[in-house]
Fold these 2 entries.
Entry 1:
Amino acid sequence: MNMRAFFIVLFSFIIPLPQATCEGMFAASAGQGSWHFLQQSIGISAMHMQLLHNDKVVIYDRTDFGSSNISLPGCHCRHDPGDMALRVDCTAHSVLYDVVANSFRPLMVHTDTWCSSGAVLPNGTLVQTGGFNDGDRVVRTFTPCEDDSCDWVEHPNLLSERRWYASNQILPDGRIIIIGGRNQYNYEFYPRGYNSPSTFRLDFLFGTRDDVEDNLYPFVHLLTDGNLFIFANTRAISLDYHTNRIVKEFPPIAGGDPRNYPSSGSSVLLPLDENKGPIQAEVLICGGAPPGAFARVVRNGIFTRALASCGRLRVTDSNPSWVMESMPLTRVMGDMLLLPNGDVMIINGADMGTAGWESARSPVTRPVIYRPINVNNERFAVMSPSSRPRMYHSAAILLADGRVLVGGSNPHIGYNFDAEFPTDLSLEAYSPPYLSTEYEPVRPRIVHSDPVMGYGLPFSVTFTVQQYLTAAVLSVNIIAPSFTTHSYGMNQRMVILRMSDVSPATHNTYNVVAVGPSAAEIAPPGYYLLFVLHAGVPSSGIWVRIK
Ligand SMILES: *[C@@H]1O[C@H](CO)[C@@H](O)[C@H](O)[C@H]1NC(C)=O
Ligand SMILES: *[C@@H]1O[C@H](CO)[C@@H](O)[C@H](O)[C@H]1NC(C)=O
């Protein structure tokens, strides 16, 4: 061990770690991560968030809230006779947040984006679909740029159906599928195909409604066989969208509790490992609310305790069955995010009630980390708390440097700063324990990589590390960033790549040759964050484009 590492280890074990100092700037110990306040106000509440490949985050809420706290660029105003709150509105309802500079600028949306969905095309352009009122059939695109010139471009009437609370998934051929939404028991594609119907019926969505719906924002994951896993309420199917055929009906999640909006749990596809052949796919769903919870809040004002349970289903098994586990904290409206070390973060949400206006209380400020590779009962760890409640209409996304960007929370029908859970316009970052300085000696730093990764083709990455252990503790993985809204990160997926060679270059510098994903069903084309992991400690991510 060199002297520097020795002192770092000495420091972290002998000297007690600082406790909650600097007004929450650095709360609790490294073992539970730390919170950092980024912006007191970005002018809007972060209801929807997407990280783009230039490390800027598109954030938006809705246009019919009335005024936001940020003016439109260039003193523009929006004239919208159909707006329910404000016909002439000179405030912005979308911003672009620059992660590196920690700054933001207003963007212009013309029509209502409330409770909509999105996905990023293989070329890096964000496609946002639907919303409410005058915006429910609009597609909006945002193409990232290096200066301040880019803004939303709106394409009216591009959707064949109204899409409000729908879910999107990028497909292996680069199209986007848009599934469901309120009163929509069907799906469609962007771009729309020629010579084919524009809408495809999906009776499964009709069959999973209950008296309060509980099947909105269905959880959709692209499976390794190219079919789509779709989970709504308590049930799950595998859909062949090419032929509009349900290939398989999975057993309902054990316990019979609803998991989708407004009983919002969350879901991820666990990391796909190219080193295991055939590749296994597992879906994890956590949290939600018991049956009838939403109706009890809105009809009787009774707040029901949220669920503690998670269900894990190995969908590639021939007869899969749900394995149930218990989170250490109950949670509804938790966001689930894949972290670069393969763990799953569950963050934001509440302990009582459901999603919806004024429908929850008792915020859960402590994130939980789930370690899928550990044995059952040793998978969860409780992390240090945020200073802010992040309930209905909050969001969280992974950033390239491994932090988690957290914003929003607005359980009110308009902006209300004078309530028990006020409208929150701030941004915070949560740093998971792997970012702790005690891991610096073993943290890899990527110094070079190929910009483009081909399917099944070699890809080289060069990194430095102070203390190299062995190739056995090295891995290379890619993560597709999520479009997050309403406690669900659409399109996120992680692939652990095969490595074909590791060789030392100069002092402390190593070359790794990884192999691009085996197929577009494993990782659809587009921009991914690539991380090198050494002894479980991730590097900062760099952007690679898979073609
Ligand atoms: C937003 O603007 C309103 C009205 O000007 C003000 O009362 C409120 O404090 C502002 N909120 C934040 C978080 O900046
Ligand atoms: C990506 O493709 C879309 C749809 O064809 C197009 O509108 C957009 O400009 C393209 N973006 C880039 C960065 O070329």
Entry 2:
Amino acid sequence: MKETLYLDTRDRDVTRPTFSDVVVKGIAHGGGLYVPERLPELTLPEVLSFGDWPYWRRAAALFSRFGVDLPAERIDTLMQRAYAQNFDDERIAPLVEVVAGMHVLELWHGPTSAFKDMALQCMPLFFAEAVERKQQAGELADDFLILVATSGDTGKAALEGFADRAHTGIVVFYPAEGVSDIQRKQMVTQRGDNVGVFGVRGNFDDCQNAVKAAFNDEAFNEALHAEKNLRLSSANSINWGRLLPQIVYYVSAYADMVASGGVVAGEPIDVCVPTGNFGNILGAYYAKQIGVPIDRLLCASNENNVLADFIATGTYDISGRAFVTTPSPSMDILISSNLERLLFHLAGPTHVRAWMAELAETGRFRVDRETFGAMRATFIGDWVRNDESLAVIRRVFEETGYLMDPHTAVAWEVAERLRDQNPVLVVSTAHWAKFGADVYKALTGVAYDDALPAEVAGLSGVQLLAEVQALAGDGARVPRALAELDAAAERFTDVVDAGRDGVERAVRAWLG
Ligand SMILES: *Cc1c(COP(=O)(O)O)cnc(C)c1O
């Protein structure tokens, strides 16, 4: 099959790179994102055939249809590695019909119990493969060092995905006071010879700014290159290599819904996604574009509701917005980077360049009527308050016995508000046990802003999960990797100063 080439959403990179190229490059020079020049078209029988295969083969089939520039057998091999016993359910992305017509797609059966695994168990394999091939072809002499600033989930999923991969090292920086006990333990107990983890004195912004400053420090980049043959890379969520795996599970879910009788073959479903950086919901958009019978895309936000407002009004405006803390921190976002890809498909590169420049200068942009209409033909959005999302966890648990995490609860509530006659696929992005403290508050009726009651306030994150289990009973299983965290050895205990120098010194010390 002919390989697919990639366009730059701002049309400044006109080199037309392949999949392997864009996975290694990440972002286009000039700030644009890569999108495929053409999309495959799947017939209904092709979509339904996914239901007959193991998940790895569904992924391999879709990657081949997207014109990934690797031999089909090699794609098969990598996918068999990506989606295997590292997931705790052999279906990988199973569906649960929690109430009639509301189908929850569980994307948290991977090693870190959150949806980032769906992409990060896969993309690093393609990254290492691309580097290997480029080195063999003499196009590249260096290895890569992935630097990540994390507010929690991404860091662990990236560590788990890049651990012991060839040609890469990974160093993660987290805000020492800004992550939960469980999140910190997940990171500092990470296995692997090529991984490093550092706490940073400061909040997530300090952490992110320090890592950005290191990326932009030319002297630092040159020194790493000269002394260690290393280039810096970020592997962040705008990398196309993280998006493509997120299209697979929508094709997969539709086929499974037909097989289970949840929808009649060919009839439409709606998809409701708890949204932050717009990557997951964009996967659903591409699935619709290539032929999966998806009608509406329901975009669910928390109190950081810039996207819900944008979909309602056509104006994206962060100029007067303050960042709010919520029980669904992985959706706490002001600039939703992947939205740029949707705008490119709806309006083209000239508009994208103008809007992104306006956003950078004024903190807002407004799309034209035609683009707004095109967006509204597919997307609607709504948002959920902090205490409402906790109340949803309790209500759904009491009514159905299904326990969900606060991100999923946001999507559930929006799906209930906006649903019509179509069956809804509600996307579940984290296991409840990743957010045990807020689930505890939800089940016991403690307000989000209030502290945990004294009798549980001193417990470790893992001990608190046992309390939730005691409340919730049989339905509330804790994934083994989380249950064992208190007993695991902490490998990484260093905490460094915020700022560029702190990060750069940490990287140098880690490299030795
Ligand atoms: C990253 C994340 C999200 C948001 O996904 P986007 O692709 O950024 O929209 C939602 N929930 C959880 C648990 C996440 O980790």
